[in-house]
Each structure stands twice: as C-alpha cells, then as structure tokens.
Amino acid sequence: MEEEKEVMEVEERVVEVEHPLPCLSESDTQGIIKGRALFGYVGIEAVLDQMRRKTMKAGFEFNIMVVGQSGLGKSTLVNTLFKSKVSRKSCTPNYEEQISKTVHLQSVSHIIEEKGVKMKLTVIDTPGFGDQINNENCWEPIVQYVNEQYEKYLKEELNVNRKKRIPDSRVHGCVYFLPATGHWLRPIDVEFMRRLGKIVSIVPVIAKADTLTLEERLEFKQRIRQDLQANGIRVYPQKEYDEDAEDRILNDKIRENIPFAVVGTDKEHQVNGNKVLGRKTKWGIIEVENVAHCEFAHLRDLLIRSHLQDLKDVTHNIHYETYRVKRLNESNANGLALSPLTLENASHTV
C-alpha cells in the first residue's frame, strides 16, 4: 500500500507595520506574526532615504543634444533651460559664429548643483547642420555619434573587470529646432527625425515662436503633427512606452503640445515690479516662463522636472538595448569579438 504524502499548504499573508507598533505575543497574533515579540518601529520606508542619500552622493548624468540650423537660438535656449551658461557659445572665450563646411559635433560638460543635488550635464551641439546649399546625408555624422556612444557603453559592459559605475556618454534626449516658417516640415526635417527617432528620443520645438501670431502658431503645430504622423516619425514620449494609465494621461497632455513653441533669452526685465526672463519688443515684453506667451515652461518641465529620469530609462531600456542586441547578434555571427563599428553598421538601426 502506497504511503500517503502529507501536503502542507502555506498561506502567504501581508503584514502591515504601523507606527507605533506594540509588542505582540504569540496568542495575540492568531498566526499572522510568529515569534516571541516584535519590538517597536521597523522603518521599511527608510529604504527610500537610503536610496536618496546614495544617489545624491553619486550624482546624476544627463546628456542632451541640440540640432538645428544656425540662428535658431539653440545656445540661448539651452542656457535658459538650465539657468546657467552651459552652451558651447557661452563657454568658448572670444567665440565667433562661423558657418561650418561640414557637420561636426562639439560637447561641453558642466557640473550643476541645486539644493545639494549634483548633475553632470553634457550639451552636444551640431554646428553645420542644415547650413549648406547641399544638405544631403548631413545627418550621418549625428547618427554615427549616437551609435558610437552606445558602442562605448557596450564595450565597458563587456569588460571582465568593468568599472563599478560605467561612464554614461549616451545621448538621453535630442531637442530638434524647427524654423518658424508657418508652412509644412522641410524635407531635411522629415528625413532627420525619421532616422534619428529610432535610435534616440527626439523632442521637436518651434524656435523663435514669437515671430508667429497665435493663429499661425496653432496652424503650424497642427501641420507638423500631421507631417509627423504621415511620415511615421516617432517623437518623445511614444505611446507604446506609457507604463500605466497615470503615465498615459500625463503624456497625452504633452503630446497635444508637441511641437513646443518656445522662446529663449538670458536677459531679465522688470514687469509689474518683478524680474522676469523675457524678450523686449516695441510692443511689450515676451515673458519666456509665461505659458500665455510661449511653451518654454512645458518644455522645461518635460526635460527636467517630470521626464528626465524617464528619458534616461528609455535610452537604456529601449534604444541602447536594441543596439546591444543587434551588435551581440553580429558578434555571434562573426566570432566572439565585437567587430569594429562602421558607419554602415551604425546605419542599420535606422
């Protein structure tokens, strides 16, 4: 006769710890808490404080790329965003604006500190983009740069004795400046965003939006959204990356405002006894941080206040992961070692 096996069912129970918690004996717990006694406050939520302290000690890294033709106010807007002189122009002594014969990328890094929180900010500028008569393939150096940063990170990850914290030079976000023409997107804008939108998070903005009337601005934004949809261009934040209903509601509001009509300036003016950032005209002062005048505040909230960490997460979990899988598949096909990254390989992702 086969022996019967005794099966013990274990019931999982969630124990909520309240403050203060009295000592409980076995007879009082009714099977929920076992043991002689539980003394005082446990402090599970203190984990958040521990994480915060460690993160503040380590600091943050954020790399932002600005793309657009000369004269659209890229440097001014970046300075306005971070309320510091962080652009290439403001950091280069005796800087003179010159039209580059080819697109070449320049990066400037800074340590910004606010209320004890340190962030290493790197601004990548793209002088020469869209400034030539023939702009064929002018996006290729930018595509290559983005992929080169993924390659650097991948090689660091694959090292046997890798660093405890891998330096992150990957582009977390790209602000693309559209001229305020009031018409449709230019072919160069369509081609750039179509290619780069697959490997980096793109946020399109209408530069110097104060040159458009409110009606022109609204019509131009609608035309751009139509162009983006018609050409299958993916701009941040993408609907498929919404994690829950709360994210979807917030991101839907952002998507309604894309592209952001922005104005940038680093000059302050007196308005009703208060100092405000603004552009002075014959008709009055355009207040940069006033949402009734432009959408700069919405852009700043997206890039810094609400979505900075999400931009980094999307870069790591989506764009970099796609690149990593592709490169490792290539290496498995060719042997154990990673083959050198070429422009041809870099373009496969676009």
UniProtKB/TrEMBL annotation:
<dbReference type="InterPro" id="IPR027417">
    <property type="entry name" value="P-loop_NTPase"/>
</dbReference>
<dbReference type="GO" id="GO:0005525">
    <property type="term" value="F:GTP binding"/>
</dbReference>
<protein>
    <recommendedName>
        <fullName>Septin-type G domain-containing protein</fullName>
    </recommendedName>
</protein>
<keyword id="KW-0963">Cytoplasm</keyword>
<keyword id="KW-0547">Nucleotide-binding</keyword>
<comment type="similarity">
    <text>Belongs to the TRAFAC class TrmE-Era-EngA-EngB-Septin-like GTPase superfamily. Septin GTPase family.</text>
</comment>
<dbReference type="InterPro" id="IPR016491">
    <property type="entry name" value="Septin"/>
</dbReference>
<dbReference type="GO" id="GO:0051301">
    <property type="term" value="P:cell division"/>
</dbReference>
<dbReference type="GO" id="GO:0005856">
    <property type="term" value="C:cytoskeleton"/>
</dbReference>
<dbReference type="InterPro" id="IPR030379">
    <property type="entry name" value="G_SEPTIN_dom"/>
</dbReference>
<keyword id="KW-0131">Cell cycle</keyword>
<keyword id="KW-0206">Cytoskeleton</keyword>
<keyword id="KW-0342">GTP-binding</keyword>
<dbReference type="Pfam" id="PF00735">
    <property type="entry name" value="Septin"/>
</dbReference>
<feature type="domain" description="Septin-type G">
    <location>
        <begin position="58"/>
        <end position="330"/>
    </location>
</feature>
<keyword id="KW-0132">Cell division</keyword>
